[in-house]
Amino acid sequence: MIKCLQFPAWYIHRVKTPREPQNISHAMADPIRWARYHWQRLVSAEGQDGSNSSSKSSDKCYPSTKTTGKHRIVIPCLGHFKEEYEKVSKLYMNNRIRTTKYTLLNFIPRNLFEQFHRAANLYFLFLVVLNWVPLVEAFQKEITMLPLVVVLTIIAVKDGLEDYSKYKLDKQINNLLTKVYSRKEKKYIDQCWKDVNVGDFIRLSCNEIIPADMVLLYSTDPDGICHIETAGLDGETNLKQRQVVRGFAEQVSEIDPEKFSSRIECESPSNDLSRFRGFVEHSNKERVGLSKENLIMRGCTIRNTEAVVGIVVYAGHETKAMLNNSGPRYKRSKLERRLNTDVLWCVLLLILMCLIGALGHGLWLSSYSEMPFFNIPEPDGKSTPPALAGFYMFWTMIILLQVLIPISLYVSIEIVKLGQIYLIENDIDFYHEKMDSTIQCRALNIAEDLGQIQYIFSDKTGTLTENKMVFRRCSIAGHEYCHEENTKRLESYQDLEGEDLADALCSSLSLMPKQKEHSCRTANEPLNSKSLNQAAAGCSASGGEDGASDIPRSRHVAFSSPIETDVVPDTQLLEKFSHVSFHSFEQSEETDREQSLETMYITDFFLALAICNTVVVSSPNQPRQKMRLAPLGRIPIKSLEEIKQMFQRLSVRRLSSSPLPSAKESSFSESSNTFVGKLSIFRVKLASAAAEGVTQMANVPQTVDRQQSPEVPPPGEQDSVDVAAGSKTCDPEPYLEQSPITMLRYEAESPDEAAMVYAARAYKCTLQTRTPDQVTVDLGALGSLTFQLLHILPFDSVRKRMSVVVRHPLSNKVVIYTKGADSVIMDLCSIPTDVHSSKMKQKKIKARTQKHLDDYARRGLRTLCIAKRVMSDEEYAEWLNSHFLAETSIDNREELLLESATRLETKLTLLGATGIEDRLQEGVPDTIEALRKAGIKIWMLTGDKKETAVNIAYACRLLEPDDQVFTLKSQNRDACALLMNNILEAIQKSIDAKNNHCPKLASASPGTSTPTAEFSAGLVIDGKTLEYTLHESLQNIFLELTGKCRAVVCCRVTPLQKSEVVRLVRNNLKVMTLAVGDGANDVSMIQMADTGVGVSGQEGMQAVMASDFAISQFRHLRKLLLVHGHWCYTRLANMILYFFYKNVAYVNLLFWYQFFCGFSGTSMTDYWILILFNLLFTSVPPIIYGILDKDVSAELLMQLPQLYVTGQNSMAYSPLTFWITLLDAFYQSMVCFFVPYFAYCGSEIDIFSFGNPLNIAALFIILLHLLIESKTLTWIHVTVIVGSILLYFIFALTFGAACKTCNPPSNPYWIMQKHMTDPVFYLVCILATCIALMPR
Q: Which GO terms describe its molecular function (predicted)?
């Protein structure tokens, strides 16, 4: 008892403070509550003494707590806090959000600043400035600026439109209304979200969106809880519970902001959604801790609660939702990195051409130094030396040949990528009707990487499988129950979908064991306990079609498909479970008989399934409304006998209402001669008619002397719970306000939890309600049992288990129910040492259960072990003391909590195990087979055990029956290295044996570098061994080993190990990687890979939000990679090469001309045409080519996955293809220049008349070259090409007619008109075009 006195008063974890004074006497009966109560008084007294000095200085206000930069103080702008609030509030943001980058004032300067981060834009800006230097001027100053201005303008308009759409959305959100308390009007008034500030009190109603991060201070829920839906934050649609701050939950009326005299100190804003730390400090210096359970976050929606009140702690951009809003992901693709390298080569080529021009100009002037016509002196009479003139000419040539660097290429690439993304998102094959979702492209600039993937790292659960957990088998106390009836039910509608599924359900439910037929009832009609547990959604066991089918179903509730919810119990197990009664439960604790022990095991097993979770209970006919039992005032009284029974129950309840009886009460209850000793105790929750709240009617007794009850029907035929000896069965219908128990909706955070709760419900162990401090379960003949919920130790990837600590309503003992991975639970289960028979039984149970677990794993089922532990109050008090120290620790809090949980979860008693099926998604085997034919290596990374992972690998064709599978499992690093060497030797021997056995086959494919052609090997490795292989000393041999295997299965891996594996392969092998997953544990892996794909499945949207692409089914990956990935890569690669080709081909016309003009930097065409040729006349066709071209049809790409290898090996865009393209451009430019040159050689044609046929021939050559390159010819291609040609002629004719003195002394006036009447002009253009394109 003395140890219990170490608890602080405010530490009442999940145990509510007694609301009424008379309850203190009952609380005293509980030694733990007694200790807490006295400690509370002690701390309160110390706090008051310690605050005397501060209270003397100010009657109402006390000095603020000294905080560091890591904390913040939140106080309301009310009463005595007003002056302090004005100082503190200036440090925090208001609730106005702005996701835009620009304003009207800073748009132009900021956008230009961002655009000039690109090296190409800086390069062209340098050329513009250089052209303003008179000594090196090549063009008119305005003309040189044109390309840069056009590119900057296009990108600025695009950025502005995107930002304007964000501005409109921000404005809409900022102007949403919410109820904020006004100190002037002394009431809640409507205010816009943008006017909310830290410290404001906000009142929210049901279905209202939360405007800011708030600490919950009041809830209309009588238990002080609030349900929120976080779909707007993380995409999860299942409900989550939040709890009013301790000390405020006991308030009967709504909190009055004017009377709020506390302050809140919490951590600074962070983006961690799962963490919130702080405390509320009252005026008497008493502190109450805060956690994430007390925080409701911006973007979530209030559900299942009429109204809540909270105080804002984070607003606007400091809220967790905004801190997590990173927007679209931007990555640099492999093709873009290659492009930057080739741009540098073009720069070197430009410098080389300019050096040739500078050197040639200097030599030209040197050879004609005596002729003043070629060496015009300066105004001062001095001549420029040839060397200096050559230097000036170098910069002039830079300006003249600037088009060699394709400035419009970057803009074109962005446009092409947007077009490719549009086509992907509008592909109807990616639409999934069941989920009403299609593909999402969250990264806009790496679509081409989809065509170059070499390694895929995939999660198993929810990615390869449906993540619809179906309860298939279980083992209890060493006895296996196969659930054959449930198997038949699943087979009956396994292949059905939609409406056919509902019909199949009705027929399959007829397989359910039953003694009486029950028809479906309407939502408002009460049902007895039997019909409640056997009614199905929309149909009865007899196939009836009654009003229940009209109950609306919510499509957005996770884990609620009929396959998951409707479980047919095993006949043998149901028969055993039906014998459970208070008498049998009492016998099982007092005796050691095998039958009694088995009964206790079965009862505890299903209790663990029902309560060892965080499932929220709701009703379907009133979506998101929690199930409540009827108020006492509404109970219909039918007879005086029922009135007598009711008062008898209430009077007995007063004798046994204390959860932990005192010594006198214990001795009284232990007396076999007393009336209470014959009572069956169970709890029922009744609501007060006046307050419309819930009053706990716990431990309502029932007599269990069945020898005096001849009218009690045998087990299995009862429709209600026995209430009193000698009386008829009491129908619980009057106590239910509405709707059947089977129509309860369970909102689980994981499909495993939902599957187990539905399985327990099938055996009449129905989870009815859940509050922060208690769980109510309807347990067949035992009635409604209310468990006091003391602690929840949530699942984590380190412990790999979850536990709940409850006080059992029948035994009044502290019980720990634990579920988790068999590899962990089996080691925590202890063998009794006191009784030899119990020791032998536990060994036998453990051995049999392990055998069943192995069998489940071989069948591909997910396995979980169920265990329990009974603690004495002294043991629990001692553990609670250490756990409190861990929870209140600031440093190493997580480690201390883990150590505390480990101390609790020891000496467990194994109850049994479950086998849950997670079926493969549709099309997974075919998808994996196609991806492997495409040359992609696939690794499966899963947290499941080895047998389950291997079974799924075989089912999805990741492993083939002919594969030789090696298992890598060791206890230390040296053994791991030795084992890997042995496996490598075994693989090499097998390959050599295959080659020797089939020499002809080996010689037929001498270029094969992988052993998959002759020998197939698979590798299975567990998480512990994987940790050794990730060590730097073993990485190379591990990668060598995996390179010789066609598939790798990593089981029992943690999320961190997943990301480390991806990092290892990506960085060491220099390959393109893709990671695909569906859960939060896959986020690190998805972000580590070159391309991350999220599957929008059953486990929320964390993976989707972290991914580059989001799909709804794994099978969509096949078309995404093999078709769209191939297309995106080849299109963009060919378009980039075409841009290099056309720019080099056109610029070389100017370069060749320099050999005939003394390298003077003169152009044979007008500057406007020179600039607009690449910027306007030939820019649109390659964009259309990059968006619409299809080198191979989608059907052929799906049939021949081997075509994907072209992207993996970068065949479309490699250094070889780049240089071949440039050589082709040089050849075509020479033909285009010298054919007109020899045609007009010796004539008196002027400079622009010579340049006009060059431009026309170049236009036809470049556009027809694109037409030849295009594998797909549509009306769009033809229209764009013809339009470009017509646009050039229209511009040239108009410009030639209007421009008389545009470029003196030479002018393009009327040149085009003259050429169009000259037959030689047509002959030159046709001949040059044909010769240039002849090699193609």
A: ATP binding; ATP hydrolysis activity; glycosylceramide flippase activity; magnesium ion binding
